Each structure stands twice: as structure tokens, then as C-alpha cells.
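U., I forgot to send this yesterday:
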Amino acid sequence: MSDLLLSSDLRGVATLTLDRPERHNAFDDALVASLTAALRQLAENEGVRLLVVRGAGRSFSAGGDIEWLRRMGGASFEENVGDAQALGRMMRLLDSFPKPTIAFVHGAAYGGGVGLVACCDIAIATERASFCLSEARLGIIPAAVGPFVIRAIGARQARRLMMTAEVFSAAAAREIGLVHEAPPEHAAEEALSRIVEALLRCAPGAQKHAKAFISHCASRAIDDELMQEAARILATLRCSAEGREGLSAFLEKRAPRWIGGGSDADVSQAADR
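Result:
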């Protein structure tokens, strides 16, 4: 994984750094494969509490590498389908990663780089960061990352940004919901540390179940069936070891002692009852 740096600390904070600074961390098939393998490895590592995704050098990610795009331009339809599916699978792995994810953006985030941001749970962009869904300039669309971007910013904003391929600022990205914070350059690392600490204070199992619950609810009508499922899920978590530890710690005015990778509760069975 010469194009990707993976590190972790004693707290369980893993960092994936796109490491093609000379190419502004642009995607090619090798980087997509490296990211796919790393995400699978980290998802299964019980020692990992959360994941930070960032880029080396001056940019977060400039999207598709021009040499990769040139090569795929001469490939067959079937080869292009397989290539696009590989990119989509990697994005889905990040989107469904079972632990909290943070995109830390500086410099340019173009094309697939915007997709990475949209797939993360939380996104911080320095105030000088810039964004662009640039594919229309090349006669294509950001189809592999489009579903994640549209979900993050809504169809109305996506129509403009995908059709104009215009560059927009970190402030604009925050306004449309692509990023959560856009601090000044000198305060960006502090903002990242603050969010990391907030995540580490919370129960890992509850975070995992929250992500699954949000995905489950996002496309559902709020009806009696959904509310019954929600009640059963909450009851299951309250009765879990993690839920009992959280309540005990609160009542005893002490820090909770979270154990391992998360809750022992089987929420999927609770929802099906």
C-alpha cells in the first residue's frame, strides 16, 4: 500500500492517509484497491474505535487520476463497468463502515474526493479547502459517488453542482451539508481533536447501532411499524451490558468503562420481533 498510509494510536483512533501527494492524491485502480483492503481490515479490527480519512501534501484528493482516466477511455465497456463497480464498492465500504468516520479535508477535494467526504459520518474542511464535482467537464458524470453525494447535499444542490462543475468553497460546502465544520487553517487540527475526543467518550456499541438505525430510518415512513421497531431496539440496548454500564456510570458520576468493540446487544433480532 505504497499509495496509502495507515496508522493508529493507543486510543483506537485509526488514520488513513491518501499518499500520492505528487498527484494530489488522485484515484487510480491501485489506490482504490488499497483503500478497499484497508477498510475491510479496519472494519474487522476490534481495537479500532474510529477512523480519520485525510490526504498527504497540498490536497485531500483531486478525484480521478488523468492517466487512469486516459487508460479507461481506451478500455472496453465491460472493463469500464468493472472499474466503476470497484470504485463504488470502496465507497460503500466507507459509507457502511461500522465505526465512526471523519473526513479531514484540506486543499482540493474534487470528483471522487467529494465522494469520500460524503461517505464519512463527519466532515471537517479547513476554510481554504475547495470542492468540485468536475466530471461534466470531461463528458461524464460522478455516477459511482453520486448516490452518496446526493444523499448528503440533496437533489437540488446536486443538480447545480454536477451540471456546472463549478468550484465551491468550504463555507459553501458547510452551507449545503457536505461538511459539518469549516474552521480556519490554524484551528482545524484542534477541531478534529475535539470531535475525536467527543466520539471516544461515547459507547462504541451505541455508535455502531446508531449508524445502522439512521440508515434503516432514512428511507422509511414514520409509521407504527417503525416506531415499534425503535421501541424494541431501545429496550434491547437498555438491557445490554453497555447500556447498563452507561447508566451506572452516569448515576455514580464516573467515566464509563466501555469494553471491547461495543455492545453485546443483537439489535437486528430486536427489530424483527
